[in-house]
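# nightly structure sweep
# worker-07 picked up a monomer target from the shared queue
# config: single-sequence mode, recycle default, output format = structure tokens
# input follows
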Amino acid sequence: MIKFELGGTRYEYDDTMMTVKEARVIKEHTKMGLRSWALGLQDMDVDALVGLVFIAKRRAGEAIRWQDLDNLNLNDINMIEGEDTADGTETEGDDVAPPEQAAPRSSTRGKTPSKS
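# output follows
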């Protein structure tokens, strides 16, 4: 599960499920296949991040077009870490810094989008 907050709203992206339609939208707009997209998320690639926000917002029921995210401030994306407990509930972790505020790779940079 990938979690982030944007504009005061918390979003969750279940990375164990992606529809063909979603995958085609990602490929059309980012020119990335799913493996490249997943790697792009880990590397904080701008197009991969926009794809994540787009799909998460759509899954949350928001009517959004890809171009609506052109003016998105990447620093407004607040990645959230947490871990699932044995009973299926989640404990909150520390927030992860937005891309431009993240520490260099050699430090304890917050985990970028990955499975929880």
